[in-house]
Amino acid sequence: AQTVTQSQPEMSVQEAETVTLSCTYDTSESDYYLFWYKQPPSRQMILVIRQEAYKQQNATENRFSVNFQKAAKSFSLKISDSQLGDAAMYFCAYKAAQGGSEKLVFGKGTKLTVNP
Amino acid sequence: DTGVSQNPRHKITKRGQNVTFRCDPISEHNRLYWYRQTLGQGPEFLTYFQNEAQLEKSRLLSDRFSAERPKGSFSTLEIQRTEQGDSAMYLCASSLGLTYNEQFFGPGTRLTVL
User: Fold this and answer.
1) pLDDT tens, B73-90?
2) How far apart are the first and last CA of chain A?
3) Contact at 8 Å (CB) between A89 and A110?
4) Pairwise CB contact (< 8 Å): B42 & A52
């Protein structure tokens, strides 16, 4: 079974600085998708960024970028120029690309605090 | 369309009672998912529908849990004979069924079983 591990329960960053959240996963599949979701306090989860495993190029969305290391099964999220609105729980998630399963497998999350 | 909606947002019930939650997906989305999230954990998959067909169920979905999507639009999740261990946030998500299949989440229903 696939598993996703986020080893940092909590992280903090100063406003305008850069922070990196870690994620590792375990799978025997060669094709899959990886996601970072953001869950602000008392608000719904939203997708931050996604990565297709067959793409070598790391995904980027404005201030958010990933470092995808397929051989190491590592998928970290870098947030540049951190803003107060970035404070939230961040979840790393995995989805198989084939085999019929549509479920997302989530890590336990990292709580990010942004200090003014 | 303002996104995935869930009702009620909060439910407090006594152990042994039945509860039902509703999810309204984004209107053009043909896939609908249910997840459960307990405190300090990430969401755990429960089940998934494509249109009205329930195509995948987790082992977490015990016999006390049942989900329906009768006309391929809204969905209901019922828990019978609730237990204290059922206390959690129940999240619904929907997607268009595209290749990368981004799932859009609702705000959740927080269940407290006393």
Assistant:
1) 999 999 999 999 999 999
2) 41
3) yes
4) no
